[in-house]
Structures are given as C-alpha cells and as structure tokens.
Design goal:
Elements: H1 2-31, H2 39-59, H3 75-104, H4 108-112, H5 115-118, H6 122-131, H7 134-168, H8 175-178, H9 189-208, H10 210-217, H11 219-241, H12 269-290, H13 306-323
Helix pairs in contact: 1-2, 1-7, 1-9, 1-11, 2-7, 2-9, 6-7, 7-9, 9-10, 11-12
C-alpha cells in the first residue's frame, strides 16, 4: 500500500505542475491569439514550476510542513477536524464557484472550441466573455495559476514526507538515505530532491507523447483510491471482528507494537460500520470509473492506461517485497512514550 500512496502522490505532484505550466501557456494563447504552444515548451514551464516548488520547500519549510500528522500536537483530534472542515469548506466554495461559472457560460460549444478550450482550459474563455476585457480575464486567470503553483509546492511537501516516512519504515530502496533529516534545516532534503527529480523525468515523457504522460499522471486517482479502499476494508474487517481495543482497556497494561486502539475521534458501533462500508463501496466505484477510457472504442491515443500502470506498480511492490523488503521491513515504525515500556 505504501508504494501505491507514493506513486499516487508522485502523479498528483507531476499533474499539478503540468497543469500550472500549461495554464501559463494557455494564458499566452489568450493574450496572443497567433501563438501556438509546443509540447517541449510545456515541459520547460513544467520544470520552472517544479523549480519554484523545490526552492520553497528547501528554503522556507524549516521545521517541516504540517503534512505529516506526527508533526502536529494533538494530531489524533486536530487532523480529523481539519479533514472534515476542509472538505466542508471546499465543497461549499466549489459548489458556489461552479454555479457562478455555469451562470455566465452562455454558449458552451463556443467556449470548448476556443483556443484555450482546445488546450483544456475553457474557463479562460469564460472569464474573458464574462468580463469583456482581456486584462480583467488575465488578472483572474493569474490568481488561479498562482493557486496551482502553490498547490504544487504543497504536494511536493506532502509527497516528500510520505517518502521520508516509508523510508524510515525501511519499505523503500536506499531507505536510510530517504529517512535522513538535515540537522541544519530539519527537513528531509533527500526525499524532496528524489520526488522532484522523478517529477522532472516524468516531464520528459510529455515531449514525446502527451498520451504516455497522461497515463502516468492518471495514477493519482487509481493508486490513491486503491490505498484508501485497502485501508477502509481492513478497518471494516477489524470493526466487525471487534479486535480494536478501547483506551480504557489499555490502562495499566503494556502496549504492543502495531496494536489497534481507538483514538478519541471515531464513530462507534453500527454507524461506524455503515460509514466504513459506504467508504469501501464508494472507493471501488471511483476506481472502476477511473480506469474507463473517455470515449467508446478508443484508439491507442485515447486509451486509459491507468489500470495497466497501477497494476504494474502493485506487481513491482509484491516482487520487491518477496525479493528484498521482507528481510528488513516489519511494518511501520511505532514511537511510544517511556512509561509504556515495561
């Protein structure tokens, strides 16, 4: 599952930098109608976005970002509330934005057939039609581009911390290097550079084939949701079997490594089982639809290769475990308090 998570976040990082770079090229197309972007130009701007992400993460992220739960005080309560509040806030704002965008979109076909629509960013033409000003549309688009670049910075911070954590658990090649934290900056520089370097290599694929590049970044959905379903299914299994202990049962007893104990934030009883069942079913549906092609009877250029790439990653992870990792990997490293040691 660790490999699925890492590859999924790697795809999300590459996809966000790709979108940010191509938004810049699409904006150039909007402001200069005679300009036609090339694939290699998209890769260069993609690398520029990655360079900004690397600089921010290595210079300004002292003491690490808050993308690792263990770096937050009271994480077992703070993290769940952050997830719920973020989902609620983004859902409300996203729905309001969608309604506003659809309200000002008069002719959908003309927007999709516009130069920016052909590049995959029809909202830029909607902004220009709504404002009636190229300068006004440019200002609004720049806000979204900045947000996308900031997302790439956050995704690099997140993915590098995941690599650091999995390396600390000895689940990756060169795990000792991946788990190294520089004393001067208190950040995992090796993990940051590895994720950024792999993203830059993925950008080279776009020069030769946009289809192959999209096949790689499509892992963001299939890989992550596969890891979610595995986690939720295991939680559902242990809920039904009753093997998760309550904190009251752990008083005056020694905690064993990887022992399952309920935290202060959970839904008990039948409602928790129903929620976990819904989560597993929803995740399976998302995975199924994420591997479908976008058109009927697709040719190789329009085929969805995410199932192939995700399957290849799972096969590699299994082979790597039986060949080497099972000798050094024994599960997540658990940090316990001194009073919990017999």
């Amino acid at each position: 599952m660790g490999w699925l998570v890492i590859c999924g976040w790697q795809a999300i990082l590459a996809g966000s930098a790709y979108l940010g770079g191509n938004m810049i090229l699409a904006l150039a197309t909007l402001t200069h109608p005679n300009y036609t972007p090339e694939l290699w130009q998209g890769t260069l701007v993609y690398w520029a976005v990655m360079a900004v992400s690397i600089g921010i993460n290595t210079v300004f992220s002292t003491d690490c970002a808050v993308h690792m739960a263990e770096e937050i005080h009271g994480a077992n309560i703070v993290i769940p509330w952050c997830m719920l509040s973020t989902t609620l806030l983004n859902g409300v704002l996203g729905f309001a934005m969608l309604v506003a965008l659809l309200f000002v979109t008069v002719d959908i076909d003309s927007v999709l057939e516009s130069p920016t629509g052909a590049l995959g960013f029809p909202f830029m033409q909607v902004f220009q039609n709504a404002t009636g000003s190229r300068g006004g549309a440019t200002a609004m688009i720049c806000i979204i581009i900045i947000m996308m670049i900031c997302a790439s910075i956050a995704f690099l911070a997140t993915s590098s911390r995941i690599v650091f954590a999995f390396g600390r658990d000895r689940g990756l090649p060169f795990s000792r290097t991946m788990a190294t934290v520089q004393l001067s900056t208190a950040i995992p520089l090796h993990a940051i550079f590895v994720m950024a370097f792999v993203s830059c290599l993925i950008g080279l694929i776009n020069i030769g084939s946009a289809t192959a590049f999209n096949a790689v970044i499509s892992l963001g959905v299939s890989s992550l949701y596969s890891s979610y379903v595995l986690t939720e299914a295991l939680l559902l299994y242990h809920r039904i079997c009753g093997t998760i202990r309550s904190p009251s049962q752990m008083s005056n007893s020694i905690w064993h490594a990887n022992e399952l104990v309920w935290g202060p934030f959970h839904v008990p009883g039948i409602w928790g089982i129903l929620l976990n069942t819904f989560a597993v079913g929803y995740g399976i549906i998302v995975i199924i639809f994420s591997i479908f092609p976008q058109v009927l009877n697709p040719d190789p250029a329009h085929m969805n290769y995410s199932c192939l790439v995700t399957g290849a990653i799972m096969l590699f992870a299994v082979v790597y475990y039986f060949v080497y990792a099972r000798k050094v990997y024994s599960g997540p490293v658990v940090e316990i308090a001194p009073h919990q040691i017999a």
